[in-house]
Amino acid sequence: MISILEREGKLHTRTQVVNGPERPGDIRDSLADISDTTRDLGYEQPVLFGEGIEKYIASVLNV
Predict the structure, then answer these.
(1) Where does residue 7 fall: left (phi above 0), alpha (psi -120 to 50 degrees), or beta otherwise?
(2) What is the average pLDDT value for the chain, to the nearest integer?
């Protein structure tokens, strides 16, 4: 999200992400697959992730 804000010129400072140590329950890698949901329930992704993040940021910033 930070990179999108920086790219769009909405963040007026360079940010440095600092990752702390892993915590119990953290998901290190995820290979989520919704193909079963799509097949069984007819679910289709209504908005692509990047598009959804951009819409969210625009709504938060009232752009």
Answers:
(1) alpha
(2) 81
